[in-house]
From TrEMBL:
InterPro entries: PH-like_dom_sf, PH_domain, SH2, SH2_dom_sf, STAP1/STAP2. This is Signal transducing adaptor family member 2a. GO terms for molecular function: signaling adaptor activity. The keyword Phosphoprotein applies. Keywords: Phosphoprotein, SH2 domain. Residues 291-300 have a biased composition (Pro residues). PROSITE patterns: SH2. It comes from the Eukaryota. It comes from Mastacembelus armatus. Residues 141-160, 283-343 are annotated as: Disordered. Residues 163-267 form the SH2 domain. Residues 306-315 have a biased composition (Polar residues).
Length: 364
């Protein structure tokens, strides 16, 4: 039977009550790097760690596995006495831990929860149902919130005390040697060479990773010269004017086998916001709708000042109105306008009348 998701127990006290929130729990068979046999333990994924108990009712855990050193997670296809069991290899910086889930469904869920709390992203490479994917999304949101609200610790001093000169290459990462190896191994598609601070705080280092029946790491010291520029400290030192030239020199020397490590951090795909319930004050995370914004309403058509109806007249209608006969009502203003001659017309009529009278008189 698959493990029960997010079933937190509130025991009378002890270590379990002091653990981070539990995201997933169930029985797993565990075999550590130095263990010769597997043990069946009740396993709880609390925060970013796995806690192992002898039974589901115990309040004190017997082992803890911090997932901050997570490197990879892959299926183990070797056969087990239990044909339904599904094995899993959890690789950490300090070794491998073999886990066995009761069945394939349980293994997929464990992989989904482990990836969610280590990468803080819902994995897209697993075969899960929509409800299970929504459950993983909620775990990612809770774990991000938990890490933000933890008591901040004083940041360690910068490992590099010498100011860098010139433009910094994009493959520079302020990480240690071990962290650089983990980054390169977890993200092989992003490049296999990164620039980082050196251990002494006065120099830089280049860490590379290549595959040769497993991961092969190499570290090269890069020092800053007093007269300017940098030098790669190998048997035949390679002087370089800038840090970009350091990276280019290593790419050239290896015929393009080494490539700069460029890791693009993930971005959110949806806009989320937190609101409080007015009744109980509980805060809820909402996802803003992804539909496009509604368009502004169109303005109504401008009405003709001579017309009381919003429907515009067609040219044919206008011509019909202009050519229609004027009603015979004496009160019609248009009739008065037509029947009332202008003063200029009256003068012309009088002059024409006088000329006609003179012509008649002359003819007689």
């Amino acid at each position: 039977m698959a493990a029960a998701p997010v079933r937190q127990r509130s025991g009378p006290g002890g270590s379990r009550a002091q653990l981070p929130p539990c995201y997933y729990e169930g029985y797993l068979e565990k075999r550590g790097p130095k263990e010769k046999a597997s043990r069946r333990l009740w396993t709880c994924l609390c925060g970013n760690s796995l806690y192992f108990f002898n039974s589901a009712k115990d309040t004190h855990y017997v082992e803890k596995l911090d997932l901050s050193g997570f490197v990879s997670l892959k299926d183990d296809c070797t056969r087990d006495r239990n044909l339904e069991a599904a094995r899993l290899i959890l690789r950490m910086k300090d070794g491998e831990t073999k886990l066995t889930a009761p069945n394939l469904e349980s293994r997929e869920l464990w992989k989904g929860f482990l990836y969610s709390v280590t990468d803080l992203n819902v994995p897209s490479c697993l075969t899960l149902l929509p409800g299970q994917l929504q459950m993983l999304k909620e775990v990612v949101d809770k774990e991000r919130s938990r890490r933000r609200t933890r008591t901040p610790t004083r940041a360690p001093p910068s490992p590099l005390s010498v100011p860098l000169v010139g433009e910094i290459p994009a493959c520079f990462r302020p990480v240690s040697r071990t962290e650089a190896e983990v980054l390169l191994e977890r993200h092989p598609d992003c490049g296999n060479m990164l620039l980082r601070p050196g251990r002494d705080g006065c120099s830089l280092a280049v860490t590379t990773r290549q595959d040769l029946n497993g991961s092969v790491f190499r570290h090269y010291r890069v020092t800053q010269r007093d007269q300017g520029g940098y030098v790669i400290d190998v048997e035949n030192p390679i002087p370089c004017a800038t840090l970009h030239d350091v990276i280019d020199a290593l790419v050239e020397k290896t015929a393009g086998t080494l490539q700069p490590f460029l890791l693009e951090e993930p971005y959110e795909e949806n806009i989320t916001y937190v609101s409080a319930n007015d009744e109980n004050g509980e805060k809820i995370l909402h996802t803003a709708p992804s539909s496009p914004l509604p368009k502004a309403p169109a303005l109504p058509p401008k009405q003709d000042r001579w017309s009381s109806s919003p429907v515009s007249r067609s040219p044919a209608t206008d011509r019909r109105i202009l050519t229609s006969p004027v009603p015979a009502s004496p009160t019609n203003p248009m009739r008065r306008l037509i029947l009332s001659p202008s003063p200029l017309a009256q003068t012309l009529n009088e002059e024409l009348k006088m000329k006609l009278e003179k012509r008649r008189a002359s003819q007689e």
